[in-house]
Amino acid sequence: MAVEIVYETHSLTEDNEKGIATGWLPGRLSDQGRRFAVELGARRRNTDLAAVFVSDLHRAVETAQIAFAETTIPIRQDPRLRECNYGELNGCPVTVLAAQRARHIDDPFPGGQSYRQVIQATRDFLRELAADWDGSRVLVIAHSANKWALDCLLTGVAIEDLVDAPFGWKEGWCYTLPAHGPEHGSRPQKTEPSGPSRRQH
Questions:
Q1: What is the domain partition of the chain in residue ranges?
Q2: What span, in angstroms and rounded, lies between the C-alpha atoms of 111 and 191?
Q3: CA distances (Å), origin 160, targets 47, 104, 148, 154, 189
Q4: Neighbour tally for 186: CB within 10 Å
Q5: CB contact at 8 A, 138 and 51
Q6: CA torsion 161→166→171→173, rounded to 10°?
Q7: Per CATH, domain 2-184 is 3.40.50.1240
Q8: Burial class for 72, CB neighbours closer than 10 Å (0-12, 13-18, 19+)
Q9: pLDDT digits (tens, 9 = 90+) for 136-170
Q10: pTM of the entire structure?
Q11: What's the per-residue H, E or C state across the chain?
Q12: How far is 75 from 69, CA to CA, in rounded Å?
């Protein structure tokens, strides 16, 4: 069988609105972000989810807690779903970070990690997910780097083609994780964009 993964970014943060790349800093949802989190819950809570897996960074946890308040769907935090650690650039302007991304695909950000390390952490998460949740439908709430990792691992897209491309936010993406793990995934289902770009860091 397989695991059906629905992927959503964390909701809009105060840093997003200010053009700040939060990285491994906790971050906090803005007023608009909390409204978006309620909307996320409205579209996902009655879709037969077995569980919600979420980055343990505060902005992602806050998104999940708002979205799935007063439901019995289990929410499981996992540090392997964290945004890329920008090290010395955590909390820097997005414009500064954007100029650096392609240089840190393999070489870690000073004091942080590389995008290839995010892919490896996501691969470990997916292997465990395939083993423990075969036949289930789950929701993952995380960050832009984790979305790129899913694209690399489950659709075969190269990270080099993703780091400088527009993020193209929409109301979620769907992936199929084969029972044998992430090495031979399938293409995500195509859905039309339903909102403005919201690059999440």
A1: 2-184
A2: 37
A3: 34, 10, 10, 15, 22
A4: 13
A5: yes
A6: 0
A7: yes
A8: exposed
A9: 999 999 999 999 999 999 999 999 999 998 887 78
A10: 0.89
A11: CEEEEEEEECCCEHHHHHCEECCCCCCCECHHHHHHHHHHHHHHCCCCCCEEEECCCHHHHHHHHHHCCCCCCCEEECHHHCCCCCHHHCCEEHHHHHCCHHHHCCCCCCCCCCHHHHHHHHHHHHHHHHHHCCCCEEEEEECHHHHHHHHHHHHCCCHHHCCCCCCCCCCCEEEEEECCCHHHCCCCECCCCCCCCCCCC
A12: 10
Q: What is the pLDDT confidence band of residue 201, given thresholds at 50, 70 and 90?
A: low
The token pair at 110 is: 């000073």
Residue whose tokens read 């190269």: 158
Q: Which two tokens stand for residue 153?
A: 């691992």
Instruction: Give pLDDT tens digits for 56-102.
Output: 999 999 999 999 999 999 999 999 999 999 999 999 999 999 999 99
Q: Report angle CA 193, 165, 77 to the nearest 5 degrees.
A: 70
Beta bridge partners of 3: 177
